[in-house]
Amino acid sequence: MSTTNANDFQLGTSSPPGRARQSTLRESNMALVCRTVFASQTPLSRADVAEKTSLTRSTVSRLVDDLVAGKVLAELGQASTSGRGRPAIPLVPGAGLAAVGLQVNATFLAARVVDLRGRVVAERLEHDDIVGGDASQTLGRLGQLCRQAIAGTPGDVRLVGAGLALPGIVSAANGRLLLAPNLGWSDVNFTALSGQLAEAGLTLQLGNEADLAARTVAEVAPGRPSALRDFVYLSGEIGIGGAAVMDGQVMAGRHGWAGELGHVCVDPDGPPCTCGSTGCLEQYAGRRALLATSGLPPHGTPAMLAGAAHAGDPQALRSIARAASALGVALGGVVNILDIPAIVLGGDLGEIGDLLAPKLDQQLQSRTLSARWVRPTIHTASTDAAAGATGAALRELSALLAQPSAWLG
Question: pTM here?
Answer without folding.
Answer: 0.88
